[in-house]
């Protein structure tokens, strides 16, 4: 319920956005009266792309209906009578609306909760002072867009009124013109009338004709002026429409796409499309109204041709308004859910494309089909240059056709590709040192449909973010580096898929911090000291001053093509190894602040030598990818009164899959205090594996325990524990214990 309480505190544009989430598909009363229940349900656990989970969605629907009915029953008193009826009606409405499509309810509620969370988070950033100016700017921009829509609505209404006046005037003109023709016919028929009567009637008819013709002459001039004035008004409205469309498509939509790209690196969620869709639908509505007005003007002109340039003006206006709506339709065919950017062959993947104006333009009345094909970087360049690449692709995707569906509850028209799989890939000739994990592809989504009763036909296409195709899991690390660099440093409107070869170190720091925080699911990112450590590693520099690195640039080659000095891995491979280790095994300890990590051996020694014996810290290994070591200070057993800093052989994912870090630290009795001065049990006890209290089926289960030999011959020349041999034996024993019994017997018998 906490989210709903915060959502009710929203103000201004944020409040309007929140209110716009609700409607007949999901009334706000349901959100209000079932707030706590709604927020406690596992909506995110339902995979909307998996038809097998429909039963889970159906249970959630049934539970929601039951909760509404229960809430209705407890309403009493005079004030509760109407609410009781209302909630009972809503329960029946939900049952009838979503019983055959429970996924739609889940999709709707997930969307509402995510949007509320985003709005509340943005408002929280404002109140904390960090994003106040940005939010003020955002609010002003939204206000500017809404004001422009009001101007356009008024301008469109005014031209509609003027058009009706013109139509009325023209109809009266035609009536008078017909009257003039009737007078002329009467004059022509006077030849058969006796002379005396003819003279009298002819004079009257001539006078009447002169009056009508004079009026027709004046009115023809007035009508022509009306037409020109109306064309001028439409020209101004089209100018406003272009300006508004540019603001929405070239700024707001592009910014959303940029946020979507950064989300691929772990950035904040790009936000919902509801506000953008509502703007695009308003644009479509206004454009279509103006287009219909211009066509009616053309019809009036054809009905009553008058001398002048109005026909050319209307032809140009019609062409301009058609260009505007074409730009809107083609630009709002977007990818709502991107395919994975590291794409493994023979592996299922999903994507969703959406047409933001599809519902407004009734495209769903004849649902279009969308096709997905994979194309190379060169083919993508040719596509953007409008060079013919029809039927060209760089591979074969299975299940690559999908019909767009209209979701009435949310008003969206989208195609959900749920079971695509890349069967094969055709690679191009690579340049120089470029590896397969640096080669970029993209998924092209294309469709064709018509609007206005086949009046306008559109062929729309959109490209996914760059994808790197791999055939083996071992390529994932380097492919991720390519994706991270592209997502972080791509510029809007670039030629596919150009990125700078060098960037400022500070820019890369932002990307690494974003990635790290996202993987840790934590606000605890990389500190300035951490980033200095990384700079020392990337540039082989010993300076501890952050300012020394601020204006330095790092190249792609330094990032992930050239090995670090004296190592057989790159800077990124080392960093990604750390991220993977932390993500799989040590995330809670990082979030607790128990792992310093980014500390070199000399720094660890300097930090520990000033602390009591038994003080230890955890730092990432310099020499091994995805390794973490324990350094601690203790007496030198070979020299009375001398203290040394000891370093254990680094642990890796393999070690922690056998025994956790907390249990290993618990095993080592000589580790007493986590640097700087926290008792180890205070930090790690909550993660210890509880001891087995009794035998199972009469058997006592053996336990693995880690020990460090107390022997002076275990010291290497650097004063470190050389546990290579003993650790190898320990690992071998641990692995034997973990193997199925049948395998052990078969190996012994053989």
Concise summary:
It contains 24 helices and 18 strands. It is an alpha+beta fold.
How many structural units, i.e. domains? 4
> Biggest sheet, open or closed, and with what strands and sense?
5 strands, antiparallel
Shape: elongated
Helix content bin: 40-55%
| Strand percent estimate | 5-15%
Average pLDDT taken over every residue: 85
Q: Could you give the count of β-strands?
A: 18
GO biological process, one term: cell surface receptor signaling pathway
Main location: cytoplasm
Coiled coil: 135-169
Keywords: Activator, Coiled coil, Cytoplasm, DNA-binding, Nucleus, Phosphoprotein, SH2 domain, Transcription, Transcription regulation
Distinctive features:
alpha+beta; 5-stranded mixed β-sheet; Immunoglobulin-like; 13% strand; disordered C terminus; 53% helix; 750 residues; 4 domains; nucleus; Transcription Factor, Stat-4; Glutathione S-transferase Yfyf (Class Pi), Chain A, domain 2
Task: Set out the fold topology.
Layout: H1 2-7, H2 12-20, H3 28-33, H4 35-40, H5 54-73, H6 77-98, H7 102-127, H8 132-188, H9 195-263, H10 274-303, H11 310-331, E1 333-337, E2 342-344, E3 348-355, E4 369-376, H12 377-384, E5 395-398, E6 401-403, E7 405-407, E8 412-425, E9 441-451, E10 456-463, E11 468-470, H13 476-489, E12 502-504, H14 505-520, H15 528-539, H16 547-550, E13 553-555, H17 556-560, H18 571-591, H19 601-608, E14 615-620, E15 628-635, E16 643-647, H20 653-656, H21 661-667, E17 673-674, E18 678-679, H22 680-684, H23 724-738, H24 741-749
Parallel strand pairs: 2-11, 14-17
Antiparallel strand pairs: 1-3, 3-8, 4-6, 4-9, 5-8, 7-8, 9-10, 12-13, 14-15, 15-16, 17-18
Helix pairs in contact: 5-6, 5-7, 7-8, 8-9, 8-10, 9-10, 9-11, 10-11
């Amino acid at each position: 319920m906490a989210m709903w309480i915060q959502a009710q505190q929203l103000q201004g544009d944020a409040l309007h956005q929140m209110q716009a989430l609700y409607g007949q598909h999901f009334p706000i009363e349901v959100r209000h009266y079932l707030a706590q229940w709604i927020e406690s349900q596992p909506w995110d656990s339902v995979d909307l792309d998996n038809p097998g989970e429909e039963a889970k969605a159906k249970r959630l629907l049934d539970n929601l209906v039951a909760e509404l009915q229960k809430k209705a029953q407890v309403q009493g008193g005079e004030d509760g009578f109407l609410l009781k009826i209302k909630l009972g009606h809503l329960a029946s409405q939900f049952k009838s609306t979503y019983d055959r499509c429970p996924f739609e309810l889940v999709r709707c509620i997930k969307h509402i909760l995510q949007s509320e969370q985003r709005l509340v988070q943005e408002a929280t950033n404002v109140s904390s002072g960090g994003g106040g100016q940005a939010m003020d700017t955002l609010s002003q921009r939204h206000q500017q867009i809404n004001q422009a829509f009001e101007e356009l609505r008024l301008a469109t209404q005014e031209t509609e009124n003027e058009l009706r006046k013109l139509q009325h005037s023209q109809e009266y003109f035609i009536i008078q013109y017909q009257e003039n023709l009737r007078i002329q016919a009467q004059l022509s028929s006077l030849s058969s009338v006796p002379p005396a009567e003819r003279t009298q009637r002819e004079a009257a008819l001539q006078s009447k004709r002169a009056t009508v013709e004079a009026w027709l002459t004046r009115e023809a001039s007035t009508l022509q002026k009306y037409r020109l004035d109306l064309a001028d008004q439409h020209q101004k409205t089209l100018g406003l429409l272009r300006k508004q469309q540019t603001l929405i498509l070239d700024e707001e939509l592009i910014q959303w796409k940029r946020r979507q790209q950064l989300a691929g690196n772990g950035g904040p969620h790009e936000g919902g499309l509801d506000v953008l869709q509502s703007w695009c639908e308003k644009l479509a509505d206004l454009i279509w109204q103006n287009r219909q007005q211009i066509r009616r003007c053309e019809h009036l002109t054809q009905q009553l041709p008058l001398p002048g340039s109005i026909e050319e003006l209307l032809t140009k206006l019609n062409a301009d308004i058609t260009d505007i709506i074409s730009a809107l339709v083609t630009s709002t065919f977007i990818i709502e859910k991107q395919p994975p950017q590291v794409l493994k062959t023979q592996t299922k993947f999903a994507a969703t494309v959406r047409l933001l104006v599809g519902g407004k333009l009734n495209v769903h009345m004849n649902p279009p089909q969308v096709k997905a094909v994979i194309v190379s970087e060169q083919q993508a360049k040719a596509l953007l240059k409008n060079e013919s690449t029809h039927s060209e692709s760089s591979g074969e995707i299975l299940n690559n056709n999908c019909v767009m569906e209209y979701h009435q509850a949310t008003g969206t028209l989208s195609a959900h590709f749920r079971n695509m799989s890349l069967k094969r890939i055709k690679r191009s000739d690579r340049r120089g040192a470029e590896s397969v994990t640096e080669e970029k592809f993209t998924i092209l989504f294309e469709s064709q449909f018509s609007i206005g009763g086949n009046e306008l036909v559109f062929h729309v296409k959109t490209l996914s973010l760059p994808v790197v195709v791999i055939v083996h899991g071992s390529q994932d690390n380097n492919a991720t580096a390519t994706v991270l660099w592209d997502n972080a440093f791509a510029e809007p409107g670039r030629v596919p898929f150009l990125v700078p070869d060098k960037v400022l170190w500070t820019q890369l720091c932002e990307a690494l911090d974003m990635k790290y925080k996202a993987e840790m699911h934590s606000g605890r990112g990389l500190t300035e000291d951490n980033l200095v450590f990384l700079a020392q590693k990337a540039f082989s520099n010993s300076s501890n001053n952050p300012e020394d690195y601020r204006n330095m640039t790092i190249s792609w080659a330094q990032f992930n093509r050239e090995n670090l000095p004296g190592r057989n891995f790159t800077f990124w491979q080392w960093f990604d190894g750390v991220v993977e280790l932390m993500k799989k095994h040590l995330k809670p300890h990082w979030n607790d602040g128990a792992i310093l990590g980014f500390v070199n051996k000399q720094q660890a020694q300097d930090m520990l030598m000033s602390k009591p014996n038994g003080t230890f810290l955890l730092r990432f290994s310099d020499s091994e990818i995805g390794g973490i070591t324990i350094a601690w200070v203790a007496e030198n057993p070979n020299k009375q009164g001398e203290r040394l800093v000891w370093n254990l052989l680094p642990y890796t994912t393999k070690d922690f899959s056998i025994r956790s870090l907390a249990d290993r630290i618990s095993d080592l009795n000589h580790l007493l205090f986590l640097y700087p001065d926290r008792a180890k049990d205070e930090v790690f006890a909550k993660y210890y594996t509880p001891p087995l209290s009794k035998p199972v089926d009469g058997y006592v289960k053996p336990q693995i325990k880690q020990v460090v030999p107390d022997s002076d011959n275990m010291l290497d020349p650097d004063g470190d524990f050389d546990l290579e041999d003993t650790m190898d034996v320990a690992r071998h024993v641990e692995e034997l214990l973990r193997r199925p019994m049948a395998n052990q017997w078969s190996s012994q018998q053989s």
